[in-house]
Specification:
- By secondary structure, the protein is mainly α.
- The protein contains 6 helices and no strands.
- The radius of gyration is 19 Å and the shape is flat.
- 5% of the residues are buried.
Length: 122
């Protein structure tokens, strides 16, 4: 049975995160500054986007172990295009296109081959 809501485990995790934040704030006066929090938020965007995609897949009952691989492959593609002198906007659009192509192949293997997502993405 699937249980939704907040339980003891969730409150324990929240308490541990708050305790870690308090320890870090006491250890370094620069920890809770606006500049540091903005830097952390700015540097976490990529992980947030990848995590959102994986969360959607987990909610549907699957798991994809290639998210890091696809992120790296897309970054390499964008970097190679920029080194070759491509337009910034074309290179930026190439990253999601690479991810889309890999996702379509993986999705086709899962759907048409009836292979579990975790096996197809290994």
């Amino acid at each position: 049975m699937v249980r939704f809501g907040v339980g003891v485990r969730e409150f324990t995790l929240l308490g541990l995160c708050l305790a870690a934040g308090i320890v870090f704030a006491c250890a370094s006066p620069a920890y809770l500054t606006v500049g540091n929090l903005a830097a952390v938020a700015r540097n976490s965007v990529e992980l947030l986007l990848v995590g959102l995609g994986e969360t959607l897949l987990l909610a549907m009952g699957g798991i994809d172990v290639t998210v890091g691989l696809v992120l790296g492959l897309a970054a390499i593609g964008v970097g190679e295009l920029l080194i070759a002198g491509a337009n910034l906007w074309i290179a930026a659009a190439a990253g999601p296109v690479v991810g889309l192509m890999v996702g379509l192949v993986t999705g086709a293997v899962v759907v048409f081959g009836r292979i579990p997502a975790i096996v197809a993405t290994i």
